[in-house]
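Quick start: what a row looks like.
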Amino acid sequence: MSDALLLANALERFFDPAADTADGGAAEGAAREAAVAVEQTGVEADGGPMGQSALATSGHSTSATTGLSRPGTSGQPASATTGQHGIATPGQSVSATPGLSRSAMADLSAAAARSESERGGGIERQDEAETIRGVAGTFYRRDHGGYIVLESEEAFNITESMVTKIGLEHEAEVACRPHMREDGSMGHHITILLQGDDAYAPIRQYMGYVELGSHHNLYCVDLNDPQQRYPIHEKDVEIQQPQDGDPCSFNVAIGGEYARLSRLYKRAERLPAEESQETRRSKAAARERSSRRTAEPFLEGCRVVVIGGMAKWFESVVRETGAELVHDSGETPERIHAQLRRAHSLFLLLTNNSHNATWSCIEIAKAHDIPHFRIEGSKSNLRQQLWDNRALIRAVAEASGRGAREHDDVG
């Protein structure tokens, strides 16, 4: 029976003295049903707090069990002007004595209608929630800006300035919420769900400066290696109008010949030279690790469990190691508990996970001596942890294999 019908039947039985006499304790049960129905719909009584019954008003005592008064037991009969059930008939008003004011009755009617409509409106509300959260997509880097491919297979470009402002890196997982700009054009609010990794982007990134060369040609020069010198693309020369000596950051496509300006710094700004050198060394080391991993997968025969987010976020990262990926979003962790017990490592993305999934999976990992780690919000962090802990993960896999062979021999 729907909540709306339950509420209506409960109210009718509650205010019907004849039903109370014939039924014995039926009215008390109906009162409890009404109280439950009212609390579930969240109806607020006149001047009362949410969660309390809207039926308890002046002129009636309140039951300690249900929070409702019962006509016939509180010493006050229903008003003769309101009809048998204490509810106004056409042309009559609700008396304050029976316990239902007009506004409370309206609240209950609205609550019943809401309860019934919510059952049929689940899909619409879900669609609305999806619109608010945005559509999931993946960002891909170019030498100047990039583009996002949505789950719907639609794609749109992102300018270099937006990439820099948001902090997007290659293969970042994002949520895009469309909005209308003041000029009538369509834009997107972009939220990073899982950061990507520019070390795997098809570009090289540099900090440097603009240099005026022969024939009035402008070049971008790497601050740490002046031999790295690239002519600036004509579009950037025309739009950004760089000057000789301007500090800048720039990108060069792998195998490309031209520099694309990412940002021009003002002369008064201090170019972060030391930071860029450290960043460059880090990315060079990441590229070196990438080439080694591609040539020799280092976790073949291992099973890696990831809890949180979406499976497609992690497939490429785990696949390049040679390992098998087992994934759950965190909504139904019990679905993969059996596989987790036979896994060799567990990774948790806490920013897209549930408390129950986190602790249930950690308890299983501890019970079976499976190392577990936290993903620090990016694909590059997952890659780094898989690489840094490869010996430990392989050792767990080898021990698990030996245990399985010994069990077979005994059998």
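That is the whole record. The longest strand covers residues 203-212. The CA atoms of residues 52 and 131 lie 34 Å apart.
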